[in-house]
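Input chain follows. Return structure tokens only.
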Amino acid sequence: MKEFTTLEKFANLGSPTIAVFTDGRDLTIANDRNGISTSGHWRIGANVDLARFSAVVIYRRDKENAVNYLYRGAVIKTSKSTKLAGRIVLHFKVNLEGLTRSNWKVFARAGSNPVRYWL
């Protein structure tokens, strides 16, 4: 599997992209290529129009194996979280397309924020 050091090197950032960091909790990756995957419960800024984001990058940390898996795909829809008020769940179609040994702060240049918007 190809290894990447930064979000810019991994994703085609020519279109608005939302990148999210997860340790795998509340992440469900569909077992088939036609399935819808989900990740939540994200706090999204009140001024962020999620309809603008057609692409998604999921950075899934695998602390045990000291590697981070990179999924790329398309946002299908969002829904309100049923677990946490004021949060959303992302619904998307993604494929596992790479890995990184860079931590999230280096990879996404997002600081400690688990969500990175690329317009």
